[in-house]
Design a protein that fits this description.
single chain, 13 helices, MetI-like fold, globular
Length: 315
């Protein structure tokens, strides 16, 4: 801005003030349209469009949790009530999954079976995760003879097929109970969890901040719980969802073979087993519960892959 000698400088006019400020509705509309300021619903819709498989997997698993806790929210029929006048009815609006050879509603039996299969699989996952992670943590952190003993135990477990190990434990513990099935499935998952945890503890143990904690005089228990454990559990959590999918399949398999939860109590595997004798006249008795099992395993595997991708991208 130029001035003439002896004259006062020219002052610029102040910026114009809008006499009509935008209303709250206008501001909200502008904020929603501005990039980077999208509302939560818009962000949720964008996430669903980008990852539809992940969203479907999460919704399916949440639906199963609700069905396990509140089966009456999905059906009012008694899963054990027989009606010989409506035997082997094909799927319809009144019976979405048809009826079995005794006239029992298959949809009600699948829904109520969720309250058996899901808790058993969760308990098996907790047993496999807790025991395996503890063994892997001790082996990776303490090393020495502890590592040797734990890894020899892991090698023994890995040398036995998981189904054979589960059947052996069922023969020892007894069949038919939720706890027995969960222990059999959980022990079979200990070896894989131990290996993953041990490998991660090895990686974290050599980190600079862990070495600095040791050099600073921190106790081994403090280093283990404060520094090693939180940073080594990422891949283990990714493995957890994979273990859950395997546990669902394992529980259904044991029940299918007659070593799990016994009829007439509804359980997914026993439903598939009961329907195999009526495949020609009532294919839905085995196929539809089998589809539910497959969808649950695929949903768990999809979550596990998502966790693994996030961890891989973050390193």
């Amino acid at each position: 801005m130029s001035t003439v000698r002896g004259e006062p400088p020219l002052l610029e006019a102040p910026p114009a003030v809008d006499a009509h400020p935008p209303t709250a509705a206008t501001a909200a509309a502008l904020g929603a349209a501005a990039p980077g300021q999208a509302g939560p619903l818009h962000r949720l819709g964008t996430f669903a469009r980008r990852r539809p498989g992940l969203v479907l997997a999460i919704l399916w698993l949440l639906l199963l949790v609700v069905a396990a806790v509140l089966p009456a929210a999905f059906t009012s029929r008694d899963p054990l009530a027989t009606d010989t006048a409506h035997r082997l009815l094909s799927p319809s609006w009144s019976h979405p999954f048809g009826t079995d050879q005794l006239g029992r509603d298959q949809f009600a039996r699948v829904v109520h079976g969720t309250s058996r299969t899901l808790p058993t699989a969760l308990l098996a996952t907790a047993i496999g995760l807790g025991t395996g992670a503890a063994l892997g943590l001790l082996a990776g952190f303490l090393r020495g003879w502890v590592d040797v003993v734990v890894m020899r135990l892991v090698d023994v477990l890995l040398s036995i097929p998981g189904l054979l190990l589960a059947l052996t434990l069922i023969a020892v513990l007894g069949k038919g109970g939720t706890v027995q099935v969960a222990v059999a499935i959980g022990v079979a998952a200990v070896a894989e969890t131990s290996r993953v945890t041990r490998a991660e503890v090895f990686r974290v143990r050599e980190s600079l901040y862990v070495q600095a904690a040791h050099a600073g005089g921190a106790r081994r228990s403090r280093v283990l719980l404060r520094h090693v454990l939180p940073n080594a559990m990422g891949p283990v959590w990714a493995l957890t969802t994979l273990l859950f999918g395997g546990a669902v399949l394992g529980v259904a398999t044991l029940s299918f073979l007659g070593f799990g939860i016994q009829p007439p109590t509804p359980e997914w595997g026993s439903l598939v087993s009961t329907g195999r004798d009526h495949l020609q006249r009532g294919w839905w008795m085995s196929i539809l519960p089998g589809v539910v099992v497959a969808a649950t395993v695929l949903a768990a595997n999809r979550l596990s892959r998502e966790f693994s991708d996030d961890l891989g991208g973050g390193r």
